[in-house]
Amino acid sequence: MSAGPPAPGDGPGGRGPGPLLLGVRHHGPGSARAVRAALEAAAPRVVLIEGPPEADALVPLAADKDMRPPVALLAHVTDEPGHSAFWPLAEFSPEWVAIRWALEHGVAARFIDLPAAHTLARGAEETDPGTCEDPGPGEDPGTAGDPGPAGDAVRPDAATVRIDPLAVLAEAAGHDDPERWWEDVVEHRAGAAHDPFAPFAVLEEAMGSLREAYGAGGHDRDLVREAYMRLQIRSAQREFGDDVAVVCGAWHVPALRRRAAVGADRALLKGLPKAKVQLTWVPWTHRRLSRASGYGAGIDSPGWYGHLFSSPDRPVERWLTKVARLLRDEDRGVSSAHVIEAVRLAGTLAAMRGRPLPGLSETTDAVRAVMCEGSDVPLALVHDRLVVGEVLGEVPESAPAVPLQRDLTQSQRRLRLKPEALEREIELDLRKETDAARSTLLHRLRLLGIAWGEPAASRGSTGTFRETWRLRWEPELSVRVAEAGVWGTTVLAAATAKAEADAVGAPALAEVTALAERCLLAGLPDALPVVMRVLADRAALDADVGHLAQALPALVRSLRYGDVRGTDTRALAGVAAGLAERVFVGLPPACAALDGDAAEEMRGHVDAVHGAVGLLGETTAGDAGSGGVRGRWHSVLGVLASRDTVPGVVRGRAVRLLLDEGELAQEEAARLMGLVLSPGTEPADAAAWIEGFVGGGSGGMLLVHDERLLALVDAWLTGVPAEAFTDVLPLLRRTFSAYETGVRRTLGELVRRGPAPRTHAEATGSGSGIPGFAPDLDTGRADAVLPLLSLLLGLGDPGEGTGLGAGAGAGGGTDTSTDTGTDTRNDLARVAP
C-alpha cells in the first residue's frame, strides 16, 4: 500500500469512502457531542484516537465505575520519573467521549499519536513546543503543540511562526475573540444540523485552506506525528477495512487525508530517539485544563464547558442557578427574582450582540449587574469556583502505579485525608493519635518534595501540641510521587532514605540541624542517627559562630517534640549543649569590629540564641556549671553589654535581654542608657544602641511604661546636632515604625504632654531627678580630672596659673576664679560614681 487514506466523496451515511476523520477541538463540548453523534451514525469497527499508543492497555480502565474525569494519561521515563508528560481528558473532551463510546459498544479503541517513548526521549536541544521535549507537570505533549482550533500562538505572519488556527479563522470571520467565535459557530449550534458529519466536513475544509496557506504553521514536529498517524491508519484499514473512525485535532485532518508514500512516512520516523517509559491514569483538575495554567491546549473556562456538556436543556437557566447557590453559600442575598432577571438580561444581551444563545460573556455581565451589584469582587469568586472550577478527577485502584503511590493512597484512606482540588485548612491536635499520624504523613511528604500540605499560622492555640495545615492536591504531585519512588516503596522508607542522603549532602551546619528537626516532625527514628552523626562532625569542624548560632535554634526546638510526639530526643541534648557552649565562648570575640550590616545580622543571631537557650534551659535538667545554661548565657550577655568594641545595636540588645530576664535592674538599665546617650557618644552609635534596646514589637511598651527611659531618649533626640540628625533618622524610623499603631500613638501623647511635674527637691536642686546623676555636686571628683582636661584643651600646665587649680590631682582645693573652670567642674562633678 503506497498511498494514504482516500479523499472524501459520496459514500454511505453521507460521508466519503475511507476512514471517517473527525477533526475536533480538544476539550470542546460541542466537538464532543458531534463526535458521539457521528460515531452513532457511522458505527465503525475501530476508533483511532490521538494519544500515545503505549496507553492502549489502559483504555479498558475508562469503563471502571471508579474512573471519574477529569483524568490524564501520565507517561514518564522509567529511570527518570521527573521526565514526564500528560495527556489530560475531561468529561467534555472528544477523545474521552470516543473512548467511552467504543467501550460501551464493544468496539476496539486505539491511540495513534507518536509514541511517548519517542516524545520523552527528545534531546534538550530541541525546543519546538509542538510536542514537549520535557513538559513537566501539566504539559500535554500530545495536544499542547497540536493547535487544532486551540493552539497557543497568536498571529500568523510567516510559515516559520507558530499559528493559532482558531485565531486565524475568527479573524477571517471578523471576530477579535477566538473563544467567543468558537462558541457561536460550534458550541451553541451543536445538534442543529441533521447531518452528523457536516460539522466535520466544514471544519476540515477550513483547516485545509489554512494548511495550504501556512503549511505546518510553525509546528514542524507535527509532520513527524502525522506520518506516524498515517501509518497507524493504514494498519487499521488492513485489519478492519474502511470501518475506521479517527478522532484527532482538526489541524491534522488535511495531513491525514493527504496521500503520501509509505516510504516517505517511514523515512520521517527513522532514527528517532527512544526511551523506556511507563504510563498510567492520574487524577486531573479543571484548573489545570485552563489556559492560565500554562497548558498549551488549554481553554479559558473548563467549568463553563463542563456545564454546557452536561446540561441536557436550558443551560443558561441552570448556570445562573448554580451561580446563585454559590453566592448564597457565601452569605450574599440572592433570590429567585435575581435569577429570573439575570436570565432575561443575558438573553437580551445575546440578542443585541447577534449571538445565537447567551454565552459566557453575556451570563457574566448579567451576574455582575444583577447579582453582584456591579462589583467584580464576588464575580472573581464565581470565575474561580464555577467558570474555571475546582473539580478533581478520580482513578480506580486497579490503575498502574508505583509502589510509593499505592502506600500513599492507603495512608490517605486510613487517615481520612482525601486529596481535593479546593484548598482547605485543617487543625491537628497532636495529642490525638489520628491527628498526630496525619501530621507525620504530611511532614514526610514535605521532606520528599511532595508539597500536598503547607504549614500555616494557627488561628487558635499556639501551643506545640497544635498544627495548622493548608492542603491542596495538584496533578503534578503525581509526578513528584513517582520521582520520590526511587527512595523507597513506602512513604516511611522513602522519607528515611531521603533524609539520610540530604544530611550527607547538606552544605551548611544549619541545614543539618533543620533536617534533624524535620526528622523528628516526620517521625523518622532510623534516619536520626545518621543525621546526628553528620551534625556532630560538622559542628566540630565549623568555627564560624554565625553558623553555630544559626544551627542552635532548630536543634533546640527539636528537643521540645519529645513532650508532644513521644519521640526520644536524648541524643540531641548532648549535641545541643555542646553547641551552645561553643556559641557562648565564641560570641563575644565575634561581635568585635563589625560594620552596620554585620552588626544587624549578629543581633539576629543573639536573639535566636536567646530563644534557644530559654528552651534548652527548660529541656535539659541538671546543667553543670554555675547557673546552668541560662546562667552562662546571662554572663555572655553581660560581657556584650559592657564592651565598647561591641556594636551599639548588639550592646543595646544585650542590655534589653538582661532587663527582660530580670538579671538587670531598671535603674541600672537607665544608667547605661544615660551613659550611651550622653553628648560624648556618636549619634549613629547611640541610635544603633536605641534600636537594639527598644527595637521589636515589645520595645514600645517598655518606653510607654517607663517614662524615665522615654525621657532619656527624648532628651537625646532633641539634642542631636542638625548635621548628624539626617544620618540617624533611618535607624530611628526603622526602630519606631515597627511598633503597633496604638503604641506609637501613646508614645506621641507622652512626648506631647512632656515630663511629669518635678518634685520640690528637684526644683531646688537638692536632687537631680535624672537617672544616672547624683543629687549634689562632688567637687573632689571634678578636681581630680581637671589636670588631664587642661592638657586636652591645650591650656598649659595646671600648676602655672591656668585658673583651673594647682594640685587638683591630689584632690586639694582649686582656684575657681575663672568661669570656664567653674562651669566645667560643676558639670563633671555631677556624674554619679
Outline the low-pLDDT stretches: 1-14, 123-161, 621-626, 758-772, 800-833
Estimate the mean pLDDT confidence. 77
Number of strands: 10
Percent strand equals: 5-15%
Shape: elongated
Alpha-beta classification = alpha/beta
Major sheet strand order: 1-6-2-5
Radius of gyration, rounded? 39 Å
- What is the helix tally? 35
**Oligomerization state of this entry?**
single chain
How many angstroms separate the termini? Answer: 112 Å
Q: What is the share of helical residues? A: 40-55%
Largest sheet: 4 strands, parallel
How would you characterize this protein structure?
Mean pLDDT is 77; it is low at 1-14, 123-161, 621-626, 758-772 and 800-833. The chain has 833 residues and is an alpha/beta fold. It is built from 35 helices and ten strands.
Q: What are the key terms here?
A:
833 residues, alpha/beta, four-stranded parallel β-sheet, three-stranded antiparallel β-sheet, 53% helix, 7% strand, elongated, disordered N terminus, disordered C terminus
Question: How is this structure best summarized?
Answer:
This protein is α/β, with parallel strands linked by helices and 833 residues long. Helices cover 53% and strands 7% of the residues.
